[in-house]
Amino acid sequence: MNATATDDPILRLAGVGRRYGQTDVVKDIELAIPRGSFTSILGPSGCGKSTLLRMIGGLTLPTSGSIEIDGEDVTYLPPQKRPTNTVFQSHGLFAHMSVRENVAFGLSLARRPRSEIDDRVSDALKLVRLDGFENRPVDRLSGGQQQRVALARALVMRPKILLLDEPLSALDLKLRQAMQEELRAIHQDAGGTFIFVTHDQAEAFALGDRLIVMNEGRIEQAGPPGDVYARPRSLFVADFVGDANFFTGMRSNGRIDLDIGICLDLPGPDGSLQLMLRPEAARLHAAGDGGPEDGRLGVEGKIKEIVDLGPFAHCILELDGGYRIEIAGIPRTMVDAFAAGNRATASWPEAAMVEVAP
Ligand SMILES: Nc1ncnc2c1ncn2[C@@H]1O[C@H](COP(=O)(O)OP(=O)(O)OP(=O)(O)O)[C@@H](O)[C@H]1O
Q: DSSP labels for 118-173?
């Protein structure tokens, strides 16, 4: 079955919070997850991602709010009564048992008939591309293969929602990237809804069709990853999901005066504000090459640093007031036109500047 995210939510959280002692580690979460989606929850260590996931899976109870899965209130249901399964970083497989025995474990506990167990185990192992490994003891598998057994063990239960708590973080980078691709394919093949927790920005973008950014127990922003990247609402999100230049300024009657010496029109309340510009949205022009085309904003400065990254280069331009602008994605063919110490101009379209809340 092909998994397509729809607007029909399979999971709804209303006012969900968790308090430990005097500390609210998850605060007032309002969330609807579309059926069939692959959602990544991203945030720094300790922001409450795992606690949120554990509450969805029933491993931790909320101290406020309610959780509904497929129309059913599951807030206080134990994990085994919920249509969820969780895969953790430490997979918790039975090392001495075979792949088949590990994957069949939950169905055997549920006393399913032998023939059904055989069929479902075989389907689950096909999904994670481990058919043929049925009789291998799991301690004779690689780290990536063991993580796939853990996935099969969860998928065999046919959860409506598969919860993944940093399942790839114990793997080395190459294997991790390969497993990210596999996970996407498994989601496509298995159908169902996946929720994946990670503190790794690249991983969250590589995997999810939806992204939730958390900070200090709250959801800062949720939406398609591309939207969150292009239009971050807060300084925290802008900074956490990529590199960003920030400019401060004052707005009066819709006219903004930025401290870097440029003016633009952007409606909003009067007062001080911050705008963000992604480094790859800016272009660099050498002195005398005609400068930016009409309609683009431009500032001149001295090249502080130019770093050749292979296919692209990266530059720090220092403006006369001491401000620095980072410009990324300068094509390799243009690198020779720029050298540290030379004057140059950075330019970008006005629309690339996004106002961010403090
Ligand atoms: N059982 C507990 N008792 C007391 N405090 C807890 C408990 N579980 C989690 N916390 C605290 O709640 C906060 C959020 O923890 P959580 O594990 O949800 O964060 P996280 O975002 O998943 O972090 P990481 O990426 O490091 O796993 C942390 O400050 C943590 O110390």
A: HHHHHHHHHHTT-TT-TTSBGGGS-HHHHHHHHHHHHHTT--SEEEEESTTTTS-H
Pair 230, 317 in one domain: no
- Distinct helix (H) and strand (E) counts, the chain: 8, 20
| Residue 3 belongs to a domain | no
Q: Is 246 in the pocket of ligand 1 (CB under 6 A)?
A: no
CA of 214 to the centre of ligand 1 (A): 13
Domain boundary among 195, 221, 239: 239
Distance 46 CA to ligand 1 centre (A): 5
Tell me whether residue 291 is in a domain: yes
Per residue in 195-231, pLDDT (tens digit) is: 999 999 999 998 989 999 999 999 999 999 999 999 9
Position in ligand 1 atom list of the atom nearest CA 217 = 14
For ligand 1, atom 20, the nearest C-alpha belongs to 46
> Is any ligand 1 atom within 6 A of the Cβ of residue 18?
no
- Beta carbon of 20 within 6 Å of any ligand 1 atom: yes
In the chain, % helix, strand, coil (3-state, to 5) comes to 30, 35, 35
User: Tell me, what CATH number does 25's domain have?
Assistant: 3.40.50.300
CA of 86 to the centre of ligand 1 (A): 17
**102 CB near ligand 1 (under 6 Å):** no
* 74-112 tens-digit pLDDT: 999 999 999 999 998 887 899 889 999 999 999 999 899
Q: Whose CA is nearest to atom 6 of ligand 1?
A: 20
Residue 190: inside a domain, yes or no? Answer: yes
Residues 83 and 65 grouped into a single domain = yes
Contact assessment for residue 207 and residue 177, using Cβ atoms and an 8 Å cutoff: no
By alpha-carbon position, which residue is closest to atom 17 of ligand 1? 50
- State which amino acid sits at residue 191: G
- Compute the average pLDDT of residues 29-58: 96
Domain housing 267: 243-357
- What is the per-residue pLDDT for 7? 67
Same domain? 347 vs 312: yes
pTM given for the model: 0.88
pLDDT digits 0-9 by tens, 278-326: 999 999 998 777 777 777 899 999 999 999 888 899 999 999 888 999 9
